[in-house]
Amino acid sequence: MKKFLEGLGGLLLVAGVAGVIREVTGGWFHFMGLTRFLTENVGFLEGQELFTNVVVAVVGLALAVGASRIAKD
Question: Both ends of the chain: CA-CA distance in Å?
Fold first, then answer.
């Protein structure tokens, strides 16, 4: 379970950072379209793309760090 949570946290971190880069550069950076799917299809997140990507990156970092602190069974 520890490795799964670390991997999921890492994936969310990379997706969030890629989304931030895409928003800052005006949309030409199409790597990891996961967060674009999230921000375009969820109504209350429209217009908040940069903030949403930052939150996804922070949640991914927190999940990865939290999972790495779990004691190995």
Answer: 10
